[in-house]
Amino acid sequence: QVQLVESGGGLVQPGGSLRLSCAASGIIFSSAFMGWYRQAPGKERELVASITRGGMPNYADSVKGRFTISRDNAKNTVYLQMSRLKPEDTAVYYCYAQQVWGQGTVVTVSS
Predict the structure, then answer these.
(1) Which of 29, 38, 71, 110 shows a CA-CA span of 20 to 30 A to 4?
(2) Across all residues in the chain, what is the average pLDDT?
(3) CA-CA distance, 50 to 68, in Å (whole number)?
(4) Which three-class secondary structure state does DSSP give residue 31?
(5) Exposed e or buried b per residue across 3-23, where buried means at least 16 C-beta atoms within 10 angstroms of its C-beta
(6) Residue 98 φ/ψ region, left for φ over 0, alpha for ψ in the -120 to 50 degree band, beta for the rest
(7) Whether 4 contacts 95, CB under 8 Å
(8) End-to-end CA separation in angstroms for the chain
């Protein structure tokens, strides 16, 4: 059974940074395509970043140059380093793999 557990969310001021983590179990992590999505209040869930099993990243235009996705296959964990955060980055952030969603972690960017 695939399980994804996110952590690292919180309240941060505009311009600040956070690192989200997603620990995966029940999958062959090194072969898995991993994604981070987010859903802001009243909006649809959207792809933020993804990373192939080979480590190739892909980003939404809105986060390019500010967010970095990475993976540690030894720890079965994917990360999302978020910098220069903006209020519009406020959302619940979800990890996704193999048609399974994590429970989400809340990121709030506010002064």
Answers:
(1) 110
(2) 97
(3) 10
(4) helix
(5) ebebebbeebeeeeebebbbb
(6) left
(7) yes
(8) 40
CB 5 within 8 A of CB 73: no
pLDDT band at 51 (very low <50, low <70, confident <90, very high): very high
What is the residue type of 11? Answer: L
pLDDT per position as a tens digit, 52-74? 999 999 999 999 999 999 999 99
E runs forming strands in 1-110: 3-7, 10-12, 18-25, 34-39, 46-51, 57-59, 67-72, 77-82, 91-97, 100-101, 105-109
Q: What is the pLDDT of residue 21?
A: 98
Instruction: Please state, in angstroms and rounded to a whole number, the distance separating the CA atoms of residues 18 and 87.
Output: 13
Residue 83 confidence (pLDDT): 98
Query: Which two structure tokens, joined as six digits, stand for 24?
Result: 């995966």
